[in-house]
Amino acid sequence: xxQDLSQFRMPxxxxxxxxxxxxxxxxxxxxxFRGSPQFAYGFRRxxxxxxxxxxxxxxxxxxxxxxxxxxxxxxxxxxxxxxxVVLYSLGDIHIGRNAVVSQRSYVCAADHDHLQxxxxxxxxxxxxxxxxxxxxxxxxxxGVTVGTGSVVGARSSVFSSLPGGMLCxxxxxxxxxxxxxxxxxQAALAPALVx
Length: 195
Known about the structure:
Layout: H1 19-33, H2 41-50, E1 54-55, E2 60-61, E3 66-67, E4 73-75, E5 80-81, E6 86-88, E7 93-95, E8 100-101, E9 106-108, E10 110-112, E11 121-123, E12 126-128, E13 133-134, E14 139-140, E15 145-146, E16 151-152, E17 157-158, E18 166-170, E19 173-178, H3 183-194
Parallel strand pairs: 1-4, 2-5, 3-6, 4-7, 5-8, 6-9, 7-12, 8-13, 9-14, 12-15, 13-16, 14-17, 16-18
Antiparallel strand pairs: 10-11, 18-19
């Protein structure tokens, strides 16, 4: 037998909050969050903070963003989260300063152990570092770290960690070349690249 889903059990405390709080969040997300106008970024940040998310200043989240458990997510100052992004936060998700997660991307912080018949769920944290750009329709898998300043090309599938300062693409996603900035921006990076 490969899997018997009748044997699956959610680990105690896995959600991080009671079933009542989880259901309340899903109700708020489906109504107030999704029903808010595009420009109501402050209101959406406030709603997420009410449910335990650590959200920095000037974070822009579109109303079509889906967050499974906001109390397991940290989004640093100045980050942008685009339309129809899913933050599947069964595990911790950390999105750095000035990072962009573009529309229709899926950040997945959990999987199942497919080698056990009871199909146990495993939370595995995802780190998207400062100044990363995740292009449109990208899948970022459990346990992945995307290094500072990297760009992940549209429609890529990220199954393993990526170094900083690189242009990465493909399925599976791989580093292709350095992210070389124009003029003064690259000169400002030089001390960081040497160290």
